[in-house]
Amino acid sequence: MAAHFEIRRAVDRAVTTTPWLTSRHSFSFGDHYEPDNTHHGLLVVNNDDVVAPQSGFDTHPHRDMEIVTWVLEGELTHQDSAGNHGVIYPGLAQRMSAGNGILHSEKNDSLTQPVHFVQMWVIPDETGISPGYQQHEIGHIGADLVTIASGIPGHDAAISLHNRDAALHVARLQPGDAVTAPNAAYLHVFLPRGRLTLDGAGELTEGDAARLTDADGPRLTATEPTELLIWEMHANLGG
């Protein structure tokens, strides 16, 4: 089967704006519903958020979702009804399993600095599991893909996922650096910052995403300092 590339440009994302939040949505989210843009592979949310100082998301519920948060700048404080508490900062991997139901809040406690992060949701293999929380600091992140989170058997990941067909990787590239994406039925490449060239698809700039189907390990080459997040997925929702 021939590879399929779909580029989603940053400017085409729906945006939620409040006095304290700017949230850019790669997929349908909240009031921004697009029936043909609900997921890619197993990924259902890819929100690019900036939260102002001394503000954030008050306590709210989630259920049956694996929620991974990756901070780019600043710090985000997590607290939940299972008794978990953590401060997430750049280079720290964090996952919350909502399971059969959990309440949590996410706040920027800084007096002066906004927090910029990407929050990503994938569907778990099983519904109704016990809620869980995991965070782990990653060491050096450079021009090789580092696995942030994975449920794929045999993967060495910073944190685990309750989905055996999904993994999230990160790299930080300098101009001229290149990485090869994993071979997978579905790939989601997101550029929270930087610029690169994706073989077979062309240039991606800050905020752009590429949705790949049946791609055979395409190569990505940075043209300026770049951070990229790649979801590797071996299944699709509904089959």
UniProtKB/TrEMBL annotation:
Pfam families: Pirin, Pirin_C_2. One of its GO terms (molecular function) is dioxygenase activity. The keyword Chloroplast does not apply. Keywords: Dioxygenase, Oxidoreductase. CDD domains: cupin_Yhhw_N. The keyword Oxidoreductase applies. It comes from the Bacteria. Residues 156-233 form the Quercetin 2,3-dioxygenase C-terminal cupin domain. Residues 11-122 form the Pirin N-terminal domain. Belongs to the pirin family. This is Quercetin 2,3-dioxygenase. It comes from Mycobacterium florentinum.
